[in-house]
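Input.
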Amino acid sequence: MRALLIEPQRIFVPALWAILERGGLEVKRCIPEPDLRVLIEVQPQFIFFDIDFVNGDPMQIIQMMRMSLPLAAICLYTSTERPLRWHAAWCRAVGQTAGVTGIISKSAPEAEMLEALGALIRNGTYSDWRTVPWIREAGWDRSLPP
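Output.
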Protein backbone atom coordinates (compact mmCIF):
# COMPACT_ATOMS: atom_id res chain seq x y z
CA MET A 1 0.00 0.00 0.00
CA ARG A 2 1.46 3.34 -1.12
CA ALA A 3 2.03 5.67 1.83
CA LEU A 4 2.92 9.30 2.50
CA LEU A 5 4.54 10.33 5.78
CA ILE A 6 3.92 13.88 7.02
CA GLU A 7 6.40 14.56 9.82
CA PRO A 8 7.81 18.04 10.53
CA GLN A 9 10.51 16.85 12.94
CA ARG A 10 13.25 15.38 10.74
CA ILE A 11 14.86 13.54 13.65
CA PHE A 12 11.85 11.16 13.83
CA VAL A 13 11.53 10.48 10.09
CA PRO A 14 13.89 7.45 9.86
CA ALA A 15 12.24 5.64 12.79
CA LEU A 16 8.69 6.35 11.63
CA TRP A 17 9.55 5.42 8.04
CA ALA A 18 10.94 2.07 9.25
CA ILE A 19 7.89 1.35 11.45
CA LEU A 20 5.49 2.14 8.60
CA GLU A 21 7.39 -0.18 6.26
CA ARG A 22 7.49 -2.97 8.87
CA GLY A 23 3.75 -2.44 9.20
CA GLY A 24 3.24 -3.33 5.55
CA LEU A 25 3.28 0.08 3.92
CA GLU A 26 5.45 1.26 1.05
CA VAL A 27 6.47 4.79 2.03
CA LYS A 28 6.93 6.81 -1.14
CA ARG A 29 7.79 10.16 0.35
CA CYS A 30 8.07 12.20 3.54
CA ILE A 31 7.14 15.86 3.68
CA PRO A 32 7.30 18.26 6.67
CA GLU A 33 3.77 19.64 6.17
CA PRO A 34 0.70 18.84 4.06
CA ASP A 35 1.06 19.85 0.42
CA LEU A 36 -1.77 19.35 -2.10
CA ARG A 37 0.68 19.09 -5.00
CA VAL A 38 2.48 16.19 -3.32
CA LEU A 39 -0.82 14.46 -2.49
CA ILE A 40 -1.80 14.59 -6.15
CA GLU A 41 1.66 13.51 -7.34
CA VAL A 42 2.12 10.57 -4.93
CA GLN A 43 -1.55 9.48 -4.79
CA PRO A 44 -1.02 7.72 -1.45
CA GLN A 45 -3.45 5.08 -0.28
CA PHE A 46 -2.33 5.75 3.30
CA ILE A 47 -1.35 9.06 4.93
CA PHE A 48 0.46 9.04 8.29
CA PHE A 49 0.20 12.59 9.62
CA ASP A 50 1.90 14.03 12.74
CA ILE A 51 -0.71 16.66 13.51
CA ASP A 52 0.91 18.15 16.61
CA PHE A 53 3.04 20.67 14.73
CA VAL A 54 0.84 21.54 11.78
CA ASN A 55 0.85 25.08 10.38
CA GLY A 56 -2.68 26.14 9.55
CA ASP A 57 -6.16 24.93 10.41
CA PRO A 58 -5.95 21.15 11.02
CA MET A 59 -9.65 20.66 10.21
CA GLN A 60 -9.26 22.38 6.85
CA ILE A 61 -6.11 20.40 6.07
CA ILE A 62 -7.79 17.08 6.88
CA GLN A 63 -10.81 18.02 4.76
CA MET A 64 -8.46 18.92 1.87
CA MET A 65 -6.80 15.51 2.16
CA ARG A 66 -10.16 13.73 2.26
CA MET A 67 -11.53 15.61 -0.75
CA SER A 68 -8.31 15.06 -2.73
CA LEU A 69 -8.03 11.36 -1.84
CA PRO A 70 -11.50 10.05 -0.95
CA LEU A 71 -10.37 6.42 -0.58
CA ALA A 72 -7.10 6.96 1.29
CA ALA A 73 -6.66 5.97 4.92
CA ILE A 74 -5.74 9.04 6.97
CA CYS A 75 -4.01 8.29 10.26
CA LEU A 76 -3.27 11.04 12.76
CA TYR A 77 -0.25 10.68 15.03
CA THR A 78 -0.61 12.79 18.18
CA SER A 79 0.48 13.20 21.77
CA THR A 80 -1.78 12.09 24.61
CA GLU A 81 0.54 13.43 27.31
CA ARG A 82 0.11 16.67 29.19
CA PRO A 83 -0.17 19.43 28.02
CA LEU A 84 -1.34 18.09 24.66
CA ARG A 85 -3.92 15.62 25.97
CA TRP A 86 -6.81 17.97 25.14
CA HIS A 87 -5.34 18.23 21.66
CA ALA A 88 -5.60 14.43 21.36
CA ALA A 89 -9.28 14.57 22.28
CA TRP A 90 -9.83 17.32 19.72
CA CYS A 91 -7.99 15.30 17.06
CA ARG A 92 -10.19 12.28 17.70
CA ALA A 93 -13.50 14.17 17.74
CA VAL A 94 -12.85 16.60 14.90
CA GLY A 95 -10.69 14.20 12.89
CA GLN A 96 -13.43 11.60 12.70
CA THR A 97 -15.87 14.27 11.55
CA ALA A 98 -13.47 15.39 8.81
CA GLY A 99 -12.73 11.87 7.54
CA VAL A 100 -9.79 10.58 9.58
CA THR A 101 -9.78 6.77 9.65
CA GLY A 102 -7.21 6.26 12.41
CA ILE A 103 -5.48 7.88 15.33
CA ILE A 104 -2.32 6.60 17.03
CA SER A 105 -0.80 8.01 20.20
CA LYS A 106 2.85 8.98 20.30
CA SER A 107 2.91 7.05 23.58
CA ALA A 108 2.22 3.76 21.77
CA PRO A 109 5.17 1.38 21.77
CA GLU A 110 6.33 0.06 18.39
CA ALA A 111 4.48 -3.26 18.77
CA GLU A 112 1.18 -1.43 19.30
CA MET A 113 1.89 0.88 16.38
CA LEU A 114 2.40 -2.17 14.16
CA GLU A 115 -0.89 -3.66 15.40
CA ALA A 116 -2.64 -0.35 14.73
CA LEU A 117 -1.22 -0.14 11.21
CA GLY A 118 -2.36 -3.71 10.56
CA ALA A 119 -5.87 -2.89 11.75
CA LEU A 120 -5.98 0.20 9.55
CA ILE A 121 -4.83 -1.77 6.51
CA ARG A 122 -7.22 -4.69 7.14
CA ASN A 123 -10.29 -2.90 8.51
CA GLY A 124 -9.88 0.71 7.44
CA THR A 125 -10.17 2.04 11.00
CA TYR A 126 -8.30 2.24 14.29
CA SER A 127 -8.53 4.42 17.41
CA ASP A 128 -5.80 4.32 20.02
CA TRP A 129 -7.28 3.62 23.44
CA ARG A 130 -5.17 6.44 24.91
CA THR A 131 -7.36 9.04 23.20
CA VAL A 132 -10.68 7.81 24.63
CA PRO A 133 -10.31 8.94 28.28
CA TRP A 134 -9.54 12.49 27.23
CA ILE A 135 -12.83 12.75 25.36
CA ARG A 136 -14.67 11.48 28.44
CA GLU A 137 -12.87 14.02 30.67
CA ALA A 138 -13.64 16.79 28.23
CA GLY A 139 -17.35 15.84 28.40
CA TRP A 140 -17.58 15.35 24.62
CA ASP A 141 -18.94 11.83 24.80
CA ARG A 142 -21.10 11.12 27.82
CA SER A 143 -21.91 7.62 26.52
CA LEU A 144 -18.44 6.37 27.50
CA PRO A 145 -18.29 4.54 30.85
CA PRO A 146 -16.58 6.37 33.74
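The radius of gyration is 14 Å.
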